[in-house]
Amino acid sequence: MAKLFHMIVLFMAAMSSIVKPYDVLLHAYHGLAGNNLQEPWQVVQLCLKYNIRRVRLYEPNLDVIEAFRGMGIDLPFSEPNSLITNMAPNDSAMGERFNIYIDPFIGDFIINYIIVGDEAIPGLDNDILPVMKS
Question: What is the DSSP string of 4-28?
Answer without folding.
Answer: HHHHHHHHHHHHHHHHGGG-PPPEE
